[in-house]
């Protein structure tokens, strides 16, 4: 009868470990995505600053595949600012996701510690 609690305990430990590992992997992926989006946003901010510093009617060109298309400056600024806003929204949602995954990972680690300490306490009590 003592093997049933040990087997059940092992299954619970394995499940919690898998949750912790999956959370940690997803957290790392989210952090990498945030870093990439931050780089993209910074490049866009620099591009917007450069375009804003240009004077008057300057022809601007946007790369489309293997060609370049002329865009008016206001339209180019509008497109870049919209893209920057989209990246900012993506970063905010990824940050929320990362916080959730970090909490999930910490909870799983706490559960593992609780189960291990409980197991040791039970075994120490039985040994006495």
UniProtKB/TrEMBL annotation:
Keyword flag Signal: no
Keyword Magnesium carried by entry: no
Keyword vocabulary terms for this entry: Chaperone, Coiled coil
CDD domains with a match to the protein in the record: Prefoldin_1 (cd23164)
Coiled-coil segments: 77-111
UniProt protein name: Prefoldin
Family membership: Belongs to the prefoldin subunit beta family.
Organism for this UniProt entry: Wolfiporia cocos (strain MD-104)
UniProt GO molecular function: protein folding chaperone; unfolded protein binding
Matching InterPro entries: PFD_beta-like (IPR002777), Prefoldin (IPR009053)
GO CC annotations, alphabetized: cytoplasm; prefoldin complex
